[in-house]
Amino acid sequence: MAMGRLPKPTAFALSSGFFLASVGCAAALDLNGAWVTDADNCPKVFERKGSRIAFTDMSDVFGGGFIVDGDQIIGKFARCRIKGRKDSGPNVNLIAACATDMMLSNVQFSLKELDANSLIRLFPGMEDMEIRYHRCPAT
What we know:
The protein is mostly beta strands. The protein contains two helices and ten strands, in the order H-E-H-E-E-E-E-E-E-E-E-E. It has one domain (11-135). The longest helix has 5 residues, at 11-15.
């Protein structure tokens, strides 16, 4: 799927602390799991509720994060569905349809794999802007 020019990510998407998941390619970066900006904060951001991982009440105070489950990306205040994905070595570009209680939008995410449990979200056009995420161990 060719990726055309898309609108810049919304301020909501930039500030919400979540991003997108893999749609399942064989050698592709696996994004499934719970992700945070500071690995030490995993138990402060996520908790187990039965068989599912959920956000704690105060998760946003500790940097927030996101949960990836297949083609679903779940943030504390939004949910996204992957519509397109393009892998290029350690780089992954995603297009997702995201929804909150107040709006719907298409968002482009650019990611770079550091290792199996760490990655960076890049912001094309803003060279000094990036956010590192770490996968939480299964709890």
